Amino acid sequence: MSDKLFRWFKIIYAIQARPGINAKELADRCETDERTIYRDLRSLDILAPITNNGYGKGYTFAGNFAMFPFNWTQQEMLVFSMLPSFVDQSNMPPGFDTAYDKVMASHFRQKSRDQEILRHVTDIIQMGSPAYREDAPNYLFHVIQAIVEEKTINAVYHTQNRNQETEREIDPYYLVPRDQRFYLIGYCHQAQDIRTFRLSRFRSMEMTSRTFNRGSFNVKNYMKNTWSIERGNEHIHFKVKFSPDVARYIKEEEMFVRPRMTDLPDGSLLFEVTLNHDREFIAWVSQYGPDAEILAPVSYRNIMKERLEKWIKQYEQE
Q: What is the pTM of this model?
């Protein structure tokens, strides 16, 4: 989600800077493909008045719509805001005061408009609530804002396996959607390590004025060989045979790993993938019942067999 949001801002700024820019040029700037750009433009239609000028004429904004791209860091903004205190304004040329005020006004107008777009985006994203909580707060806007502005958050988080609430100081790096839920990946100051947090388990959250730097952190490397969200240290190579009845549906699944899929002569599908954790993958395979057969590793084939035998015994009881 955060990657998409940053791409949307790039598109808006690119159209403002170069009215008439076309989809291919936007794709090059955003390091993506034209198909994704067209999808983004349809989504942005409710946020910005983007107009297609016709075949070969590119995109512009209708009316006087504009954003002010002062891509300042927090430190740069602070230094500039203190400028009048460090210079002898009597030696400055005429117009310094009004120019300074206009730049600062534009900066704060940009921040206000960016926040307005963020609110629009988060308003159109419908999130579910945990079954046991009727009044679960939605912190999606706060998290995205903190990621964009690179601000540390103070939060109270409920750890499910310990059934415990703890205060956390987190540098939010990325927001990741998984299985109809949002997860926050960031640096936890208490654990002094990268951690993954489920958004619905936050009990309170506030953005601080403290800034952070992601450094060399790479989310793709961090999530490598992870089926959904649970990460482990194993290296498990699964082989699963899917029946002809579900093979075509498996090919349409949107996955976070890159499996190897081989069509077999009888119309079935051989599915191979290497993962660092097993639970989420086994749960996914189980939903296909007898249309999915684990071939390897043999140990997991036996685990599935024992699970099915236990299930049969449970239903045979009077």
A: 0.60
